[in-house]
Amino acid sequence: MNKRVAIVEDEPHIVESLRFILNRAGHDVIVADNGDAAIEIVKNDSPDIMVLDIMLPIKNGFEVLKWIRSQTRYRSLPVLMLTAKGQDKDRNTATSLGVDAFIAKPFSNDEVVDCVNRLLVAERPGG
Amino acid sequence: MLSTNVALVTSLLYVALLFLIAFYSERTTNEGYRRLLRSPAVYTLSISVYCTSWTFFGAVGSAVRTGLDFAAIYLGPTLIFVGWWFFLRKLVRIGKAHRITSIADLISSRYGKDPRLAVLATLVAVVGTTPYIALQLNAITTSFGVVSRSAPLSGAPDITTAFWLAIALATFTILFGTRNVDADEHHPGVVAAIAFEALVKLIALISVGLFVVFGIGGGVVSVFSLPEAQEVLKSEEAFGSRWMVLTMLSAVAIICLPRQFQVTVVENADERGLLTASWLFPTYLLLISLFVLPIAIVGLSTMPAGSNPDMFVLTLPMSERQDLLALFVFIGGFSSATSMVIVASIALSIMVSNHIVVPITLWLKRDSVKRSSDLRTILLTSRRFSIAGILLLGFLYFASSTQSDALASIGLIAFAGVAQFMPSIVGALFWRNGTALGATWALGAGFVIWLFTLLLPTFAGESGALADMIKHGLFGYELLKPYELFGLKGFDPLSHSLFWSLIVNSALLVLVSLATTQKPLERLQSALFVDVYRNVAGQEGRLIRRSATVDDLYILAQRIMGVPDATELFRNHAREQDIEGDMPLPDAAFIAQLERRLAAIIGGASARVLVSQVAIGETISLDEVIELVDETQQVLEYSQRLEQKSTELEQTASQLRYANEQLREMDARKDEFLSQVSHEVRTPMTSIRSFAEILRNTDNVDSEQNKRFLDIIHDESIRLTGLLDEILELGRLESGQMSMTLDQIDPEQSLQRALETSLGLAEASGVTLTSRVRTGSADVLAEPDRLTQVFINLISNAIHYNTSDSPRVEIESRLVGDRYEAIVSDNGPGIPANERDLVFKKFATGWSPGRDGHSGTGLGLAISNEIVKAFGGELLLVEDSDVAGATFKVSLPLAV
């Protein structure tokens, strides 16, 4: 059964490449280009996993993550964070907010696909 | 009705009370009472011995005669106690450190313990004080006559009464002050009695003041509305040059009067008492002078013409039949006079015995010094005779001077006499180079001029040799007239005398001192005095080398200190040296200590002479003295340098702190910048890498997709290059490395070129580009290509971020005053209020995506901003919340 991956990213070219490789890996993709849209997707489209950028319009990735972890219904949604900043500070913030995986840009396609698959397998019950 | 007997008996009872107080104060073991005696309040009250019968009776007389003159006499001391506190403190510190016994001792000790200088200073003090004592005799005699009605109100004081009074005062003072020779010259009993008398005279004067104002005058307001008030207050003399002279003179007197030196310095029990006295004594002066003016006014208005105004305080209550009050006032005046006489004659007798009698005795008995004859008897006897002699002198002056009707003028003569000490004292405390010869010449010359110009003329009658001299000058020389010395005219006698005596005095001190070389002892003493806070007195032992046998020293000590005190001193020192038995090693340190103990009794000069007679081989190590002086100098300089250094350090530290903060901030900005650059670079890199991997690892990508992915890689590579170019450009702009050639150009041409360039982009984006009102032509200083770049940036931003359905961008330009303005506005979403401050910052792209979804690098506006700044202009975001869209304005100064 196909899994549904939510991509939250405001750079269209990056969205395009992520969509391509995740489709290839057999997943469905839904896209949000800002923080609010990401939350709407979580509420309405029940994704199985989220690939989340940090620098986003309106609400940034941390705020989205925090919101997800604060909601009983969605808190077990696996989240993979992608960031172009790649600083330890961001990694620590993400970890403390309960991120499941963290990959710095520019990423390797295989790494992202492997990571998504791994998180989907380990998906917590009730998600 | 008061009678002679009542006044006499009351006076005697009062004196008996004083005795009881003095006696109890010296013998008591009551700890609380002893603490009270050493308290600042008692110390301050004893300083109030400054207020004599001159103050008590004479201030009112002075107010009647010369208006506000009297206030200067209180103002001077107030200025010293409030403003020259440091001076008094140094004086007291030196006095205690060197066991100074009198003002003559201070001067002679400072200038090398010179015995001749001590004799001269004693002479000045005695002669200077004599008129003052005469003044007290005058006051008591006159007031006694008034209160006992034995003399007419305006009559001259009775000589016979004055004579018996002088005898009585002498007896009284001898009994009081010379009952024994104390180990140190402290007289707690005398101080207690003086303090008590200070209270009595203050309360008496306030009582009569209250009675006069409210009992006779009918209140403060009605007193000052009397016609006589105008007479007293409208004195032409007030606050003039004479007034200044009086203020200065009384300021000097509070330091130089022998009795003031005695109570302030010699009798001081605790240096901290000065702190209290610095405000309490001026308060006392204020209280005691409070009623002077009202009494003078009421006296003038109610007493018969020709009444002696000096006696108003007494005659006013008597005229109202307030005999008890009058008697109390008489006792108050008696208090003020006796306290002065007691302290002054004790102070003078110490000088006479220490500086004149003892040296003469020592010289006469120079062959038998080692025999155990008791000098103490000689000391006591000579002091007793001195007191008698001093009072006799006062009586003689009283009997023979002709100006005896005005109390104040006699007091001022005395002030001027002791003022001759001032230059030498100031030199003693603050000038290292003064010599004994300089001080001797200064004091001697000042004293002679004072004698000639002020004291001597007071003996002159209507005719006779003295009167002739005043008229025609000494030996007929016109230049030697006492009141017009060297032809100086137009001064009153007091100012005239002070002018000449103090100028000659100070000049000689400086000139003669500079012309003579300091002897080793003078040099040593000057270092110990001027730097008293640093050089403790105990250092002489290291500087003066001499030896003596302990037996000789012991005999010497017991001759002056008495057996018990001498034994104790020797035993204590032996214990300090860890020696068994009662006799210490007579080393230089011990000899120096003994000399200081002896100096406390017989004065520094005599003590030195005595010790020199038993000590041999005295050498003052000049090297050591110089070292001490230099050390002090060096310590001083070193501490000044240290202070300077530490100020510099502090400044440097604060500069460093500031620089460090700046660096920190810059470092934080740099980190932020790098992190943003990293982010901006990584974003296109991510696309490039990801699509490159797709193309490499995916087998069946159709050719259309293949082309699209390569296009993306290509576009992102170009974006990356542009980004790097912009970063470099901004870096050069910010660091000022970009060389720009500013020419006088027409900005309209740049704007036109930018418009043409942007047409293509606008068309492609479906944005309507309209050009509105334009200036036509103007000149600014700029570089045309750069200016075009700025305009293109603004226009393409306006196109790029305009997501409106019918997007429009409008360009206009205008001249406002001496500025050229180009305005680019759009009808897009505008810039949110919270991001307006950020638009010109690096990498501030805002979060609203552009038409193609891309946001810019965030460097364009920052670069444009830097360029416009380089042209001396401004790039502004026009804030107008009413209009949709964003409006940017380039404002450039017109070229002149």
**How far is the first residue's CA from the last residue's CA of chain B?**
105 Å
Q: Pairing-aware structural class of the strands and helices of chain A? A: alpha/beta
Number of helices of chain A: 5
Mean pLDDT of chain A: 86
Helix content of chain A: 40-55%
User: Shape of chain B, please?
Assistant: elongated
The protein's oligomeric status is heterodimer
The greatest interface between two protein chains, and residues involved on each side, is: A-B, 28 and 26 residues
Decide which structural class fits the backbone of chain B. Answer: mainly alpha
So how many helices of chain B?
35
Please summarize the sheet with the most strands of chain A. Answer: 5 strands, parallel
CATH class of chain A: Alpha Beta
Overview of this protein structure:
The complex is a heterodimer of chains A (127) and B (896). Chain A is α/β, with parallel strands linked by helices. Chain A has one domain: Response regulator (Rossmann fold). Chain A is built from 5 helices and 5 strands. Chain A has helices at 12-24, 35-45, 61-70, 88-97, 109-121, and strands at residues 4-8, 28-32, 49-53, 79-83, 101-104. A 5-stranded parallel sheet of chain A has the order 2-1-3-4-5, sandwiched between helices. In chain A, helix 3 links the parallel strand 3 and strand 4 (79-83). In chain A, helix 2 (35-45) runs parallel beside helix 3. Chain A starts with a strand and ends in a 6-residue tail after the last helix. By secondary structure, chain B is mostly helical. Chain B folds into 4 domains: 4-366 and 373-404, Up-down Bundle (Sodium/glucose cotransporter), CATH 1.20.1730; 536-620, no CATH class; 625-734, Helix Hairpins (Orthogonal Bundle); 741-893, 2-Layer Sandwich (Heat Shock Protein 90). In chain B, a hairpin with a 2-residue loop joins strand 1 (480-481) and strand 2. In chain B, helix 14 (258-266) crosses helix 18 (323-364) and helix 27 packs across helix 28 (563-576). The longest helix of chain B has 76 residues, at 622-697. Chain B is elongated, with a radius of gyration of 47 Å. The relative contact order of chain B is 0.09. Classes of the chains: A alpha/beta (127), B mainly alpha (896). Chain A binds chain B through residues 10-14, 16-18, 20-21, 24, 33-34, 55-58, 84-87, 104-110, and chain B through 675, 678-679, 682-683, 685-691, 693-694, 697-698, 712, 715-716, 847-849, 852-855.
